Amino acid sequence: MTSPFFGWFEIIRLGLIQACLGAVVVVTTSTLNRIMVVELALPALLPGCLVAWHYAVQIVRPRMGYGADKGRRSTPWMMGGMMVLGVGGFLAAVWTDLFQSVMMLFGVLLLVMLAVPAAGGLEHATRVAVEQTGPGFSFGPGFSPDGRDFLPLGLACSFFFVWVFGGFGSPASVVRVMASKSTSHIRKSIVLLGGYNLLIYIPLIMICICGRAIIAELPPGKTDEIIPRLTLSLTNGLPGGSLLAGFVLSAPFGAVMATVSGYLVVIASGVVRDIYQRFLRPHATARETRLLTYIVMICVGLFAFLLNVKPVAYLQVFVIFSGAGSAVTFVVPALMAAYWRRATALGAIAAMIAGGGTLILFYIAGFFFPDPGIGPMGSIRPIFLSGLDPIIWGLSASLIAGVGVSLLTPAPDPKLVSRLFGEDVVCARSTGS
After folding, report:
1. Of 43, 109, 110, nearest in space to 250 by CA
2. Which is nearest to 213 in space by CA: 152, 155, 143?
3. How far apart are CA 273 and CA 278, in angstroms?
4. Number of domains in the chain
5. What pLDDT was estimated at residue 232?
6. For labelling alongside 83, which of 36, 165, 309, 412 has CA 20 to 30 A away?
7. The dihedral formed by the CA atoms of 119, 122, 126 and 128, expressed in degrees to the nearest 10
8. What range defines the domain where residue 93 resides?
9. Cα separation, 357 vs 397, whole angstroms
């Protein structure tokens, strides 16, 4: 019996299979190892060993080829290999973010276990810090080298809203929330994230208190260096201390890089999709939008770089402004969409405008009112009405505007609401709940 003709079509078919395998391998052996080294700051030896393991597995390829030839059924071997490789590439991409979160939790817990004994206990560390700075460090309004009431009670309570809702309301987080499968998953994620943040921030407070006692010579204006200095100091005498310090510091730096890249993508997509493509060129080609996205990302990156050529004296002012701005703009609309069946599109828009406008108004008013003497020093400062941060008033205005406009506008389509909440909401619409 003659064998079937093996022509150019069959050769191209086999070549395309190898090209698909190579495309998946590029993700796992090129992109991910760059993320591990550059963004997660892991030792280059780790991704090098993983890539070496990838090539070591190639030794079994002759055995797989022999099995395919012997069984005269190549398709199951090819499809099985591609499936395993594709699943591995997908899981590697997913586990990159998960690994970063786990490493941050591991680093914080390790550092608090090293810092508290090194400072002689939390009580002793607090007493030493009070001796070095004054009673305001422990009892309020906080320690500030220039004698300001750095953190009075109103601002202290306000910052619980800044850090909780600021992270939830950041554009990168909102995009991830919109990509959730259902509101049920969002609810479970909020609970999980709340527990995770509890395990992160409470130990960080303890670490910083111990750091003030362990590193007494930390000069004013250098308090941002407390975690890196403390990490290097506490792991210096441990076996593999440099490796432990690298793991502890890699997670927060990786989180910073991931956040920056997320903001770049969100800003670029907002400019291109919401401004250029919607108002200027609705029929822009894919190549045109891709090129413009690259240009916007480069320009935004260069602008941020130029701003940091001469670092500002108080970076916390900009961090609080950006975090609070994200919170007052996006948190209330996101919660309305996730929990309230009566929320409308106009209500969400009104909530965003009212929240963001209130915050900006408070910061503009800060240029015309005298310095209240509270909070960090800086030329850019808001007014603190009743001693509270503007985020409180921005969230309040956003909530009032969102609920009020939603109640004054027609209710959303019950079919659309049922897709979001997974239940029949006809009765809910009729009762206005």
Report:
1. 43
2. 143
3. 6
4. 1
5. 83
6. 36
7. -30
8. 8-59+79-98
9. 9
Q: Is residue 15 part of a domain?
A: yes
Report if residue 185 sits inside a domain.
no
Instruction: Judge contact between 86 and 24, C-beta under 8 A.
Output: yes
Phi, psi of 122 (to 5 degrees): -70, -35
What does the pLDDT look like over 96-109, one tens digit per residue?
A: 566 667 777 888 88
Dump pLDDT digits (tens) for 339-377. 888 889 899 999 999 999 999 999 898 888 887 777 766
Residue 419 tokens, joined: 């897709």
Any idea which residue has 């400019």 for tokens?
Answer: 271
Q: Is the pLDDT of residue 165 over 80?
A: no
Output the pLDDT for position 374: 78
| pLDDT at residue 354, as a whole number | 94
Phi/psi for 236 (5° steps) reads: -65, -45
Alpha carbon distances (Å) from 314 to 129, 311, 320, 338: 22, 9, 11, 36
Q: What is the reported pTM?
A: 0.58
Domain membership flag for residue 41: yes
Residue in this structure with the two tokens 């079937």, named with its chain if needed: 4
